[in-house]
Amino acid sequence: MVKDSTAENPGQSVSPTQAILIHLICGVGLAVGFSVAHNVYFINLVSDPSHTLRLIWVIESPFVILLYSFFRQNPEKCSYLKAVIRGVLALPVGALVNALGAIALGAPVGSQYFQRTINWSLLMSLFTFVPPASVFGSSSEDWRRIFANTKPKGSLDYMICLPAHGAVVGAWFGAWPMPLDWERPWQEWPICVTYGAVAGYLVAMVASLVLILIQGGQQHPKSE
Amino acid sequence: MSQMTCKKLTLLTLAGLIIQIIGLLLFVFGFFPVKPALSGVSGSESYHAPASGFSENQTQSSLPPHQLRSLYQELSGIPPLFDRLILMVIDGLPAEFVLGKDGKPPKKAYMEAMPYTQSLLANGMAIGYHSKAAPPTVTMPRLKAMVSGAIGGFLDVAFNFNTQAMLDDNLLGQFFSIGWNMVMHGDETWLKLFPGLFTRHDGVSSFFVKDTVQVDQNVSRHLGDELTRDDWNLLILHYLGLDHVGHIGGRNSVLMAPKLVEMDEMVKMIHMSPIMKNDQGKTLLMVVSDHGMTENGNHGGSSFEETDSLALFIGLRSHVSDYASATQNTAQQVDIAPTLALLFGVPIPKNNVGVLISETFDPLEDDHQLRALELNSWQLFRLVEAQISGLSCGSIPLNGFRDTQISGTTECIGSIEKILCCLYMNAAVLHCSWKFKKVSESNRWEDYNSTVAAYHKFLKTASEWLSSRATDKPVDLLAFGVTAMLLSCLILLSIIFRMCREVYHVEKPLHCHSNNDMQKWYLDETFVLGVTLILVISMISSSMVEEEHYIWHFMISTFYLILLRKTAQLLPVGNSLFQGQARNCKFEMCSIFVLLISERILRGWHQGGVNWTHLPDISKWLEHAASDHIKTIQLVSGSFSDLLRLLCSIFAFIEEKICTILGSTIVVTVVMLPWFMPIQNSEKGSRHDIYTTTLVPSDVKDKSPLMELRDSLYVIGWTYILCWCLLQLLLQQPINSMAILLVLVQIMTTILHFSYSGLHREWLEICALYFLGMAGHFGLGNSNSLATIDVAGAFIGLSSHSTVLSGILMFMITYASPLLVLLSMVVYMSVKSCLAIPQNADSGYVLKTMLGFPCLVPLSLNSILLTAYTIVLLLMRNHLFVWSVFSPKYLYVCATTVSIYIGVSVVALTGTYTYFVLAKRKMMLVSIINDKR
């Protein structure tokens, strides 16, 4: 079956150093996004959520798309440019899925929330959809392995699967304070959800690194 | 492993339930004590001693007001000090603002804001009291306490929500009966409490909390006119502005001082007016507040800041010597009622627990003062007698004044009955001997003092005991109740665990080829257990209790997403699997999308809860929309229910009969259907299960009537569901008809999904249905505050007022969704559980498999939530919001428990009845065939 060949040969292999580098750059991209918003435009998530989110995803997206496209599957069949285009196309598609998911879970619908929801879901798409789209394209069994079964195999899978799940779970928990009557400005949609998603993403990146290092440590003595 | 027999299972479950009911009852009556109140209105009998056997004569009630007034005057023997009363209620004013605290004068800013009132206090023209209010410190119960002297329990507040008018004996009713003209300007709560009693009124609403100016101007604008009139005896002015200031900015709001200045000016205006000046002493001005406020301006709880309300008498003829004695007095809020009753010569309201404020009677003669104390004692003694059945103190020895020296010093010890009895007798005997000694004049002053002291001792003890009866919580009852509930929870859970173990151990060998991973713990199962945990934890936070609907909606949507993920795991890859399963999977996916969409619409239908009700939602949009398009939508959504109403009324002619018709339809269907269900031969299986039927050995002799059982349950289940929905369409507000449909769609889609996928364990599916029912409960606009109960709907179709019937209707409206889910459990059983039963099983096994989980899972889920919330309530008994948030929620939890009991018993009875009827018929059929052979 096709599934076996791809699962055992996960295209480009990722060394722990590369993994650390990728995650570091992605994290730095986020930090740059936040700091540009804060220092250049003097806005933050609380004062102007939709513009801040737009800035962050615009700054973060080239990092994610360009980096993950390096590790595309079947590099001999699929050019780098094609992988980048896949990533770019996945951005709005993933945003749509994320937005629908958020609305199903109760995100407010209305014209005043429209921009915020779009920008938030574009950012979530960068965390969840764009990396696997750049790497796997439209290979459905890979997508199912990552998202439906959550059975990552190999370091690249860990790098894609864990942060994506981390972001979703973080966003889910981030929605908890929203209905409470604390009367804090950050309880608005989607501010605390974004905080939760970013926190979950960062924690899961660290976790994936740890898992990759453990796995690498287990594999090295065998090969040597 | 030993199997649990059906009989044992039933007995254990019933035992668990009975223990739970007992525990719940014990806890409820321990936590919300219901005081036995005296019914009726005090009349002339209150001027006679309790033991004298004087009964109210019938002619008295028909006396015209003026004669009644003079009769009271004559009987009481106290000359009236005043004939007109101005009751000025300043909502939410803490006594600290006027009187200071702990012997210190109030803050300088407040002193300066109320110069006139302070000067009255300093000159001895006024006397002020810190009157302690009982929780809940919200306006309506506090006004009731002031005019009736009774402390209502929480249940009184909760059970009286459909009739706001005050029916208990109260001051205003007494004033009305002696022909007083009463005028009220201010908070319209008074108008709700006493409809028709006021000759003139101008009610203002406390709805616009941001308005601190107009709300008081609307009261004050009448003041000038009213003060020149002389056609009223009681003028009530209720100012809401200060409470609004508190709600906006707390105690230290910048608006507070100007508001106090305004109030002070009103006091000045009244006190300077001719009616207070000219006939000095005939008009009493009383400035009271209903409750205090916290630093943030909130109220409702039982902290000192909230219960510290003001009672200020202006215009008493007694002059207080210094500022300290005019301000450092304490009283209870309920003391206002007997004081005013005695001052104005009406009987003390029957359920009063207050004690007269003695300083206000100082201008009276000694014998009049003692008479006032005596009347108050008689009234309290009557109330004590009502609380302690069989209390007998003997009669007062009328000529025993010789031995007063002995009995007057009797030490009162023993049980509370004995103490109260003894104190009362002491006071009565002393009073009696004082009356006899009066002529001799020897040491009269000492006797007078000891009589007053004895009366006060009795009054204080009796009052404290009576009010503690209304607020104290018996610890042993509560502990026993909680233990019983914990025990029953453990029993139910252990039954569930045992059934789970049995079922999945039995199932494994049957399906081991396909369900290798049946023993694995799935994400959705973890999630369902997690939801239960989250629900329990969220009950601790008052904000989460207020916004509970968010939790249910969030959880049920997340559950659907997890189902989506689980279905996606099974989605066939490419075209490697055969077409049928692919179509099945796609169908399952579609059903989940239907679930997600309908859940989202249902969530948006009502913006429930407490804090975010102002946000837009679909129902508001439909109700307030002006444009024609939206009207059309409204019309369509409402027309469905209207059409049904029309249809029903065509059949029934009178709307009242619809309930009867629906009820009889159900009864007839349930009772008759099993008798007429065609018993099938194995050749013609039902449409759904050609599969199973072919496996059945084609022999009619087979004793267990599974196929027929399934078919009849299916029909009965649908009858239940449809009749219930029709009833709801009649009872609910028209805006909810769509929401009912959404709940129904979700239930049906869920059952369909589960019956097709066969992936999930049965307990998980029933948990999901239960959660769906609760999410639907909140989706229909319910919340955890008593305010959202649809009272108007409870009177649909009733030709006369009936508390029981309207209560049942209210329950049906409120618990529409959980009961719908439980009724649909019958359909669920028919499409689901019979699959796993082998054909030759005995009746006990069949019943256990069929009814076990559908009955046990809702019961144990509910028992977990009930027990957890009981413990939370016990922990939170001193919480600020215990009366406003936690207690109403507890009532809802109890009502949910009742609805679960009802639903589960309906399911269990239907299942058992249908099974046994079919089994009997099958037996008969078999014997007939045997006879023919």
Overview of the molecule:
Chain A: This is Phosphatidylinositol-glycan biosynthesis class F protein-like. Chain B: Keywords: Transferase. Chain B: It comes from Melia azedarach (Chinaberry tree). The complex is a heterodimer of chains A (224) and B (933). The two termini of chain A are 31 Å apart. In chain A, helix 3 packs parallel to helix 5. Chain A has helices at residues 2-8, 16-40, 49-69, 80-104, 111-128, 130-136, 140-149, 154-174, 191-223. Residues 1-11 of chain A have low confidence and may be disordered. Chain A is globular and about 50 Å long. Chain A is mainly α. Chain B is mainly alpha-helical and 933 residues long. The interface between A and B is medium-sized, with 23 and 31 residues.
Largest sheet of chain B: 8 strands, mixed
Helix content, binned percent of chain B: 55-70%
**Secondary-structure content class of chain A:** mainly alpha
Overall strand count of chain A:
0
Uncertain runs of chain A: 1-11
Number of helical elements of chain B: 38
Q: How many DSSP-defined strands of chain B?
A: 8
Give the strand content of chain B. Answer: 5-15%
The residue ranges of chain B in which pLDDT falls below 50 over 5 or more consecutive positions are 398-408, 508-518, 681-703
Mean pLDDT of chain A: 85
**Span between termini of chain B:** 43 Å
Query: Rg of chain B to the nearest angstrom?
Result: 34 Å
The number of helical elements of chain A comes to: 9
Multimeric status of the protein: heterodimer
Order of secondary-structure elements of chain A: HHHHHHHHH
Indicate the proportion of strand residues of chain A: under 5%
**Which protein chains are joined by the largest interface, and how many residues does each one contribute?**
A-B, 23 and 31 residues
Distance separating the two termini of chain A: 31 Å
Broad structural category of chain B: mainly alpha
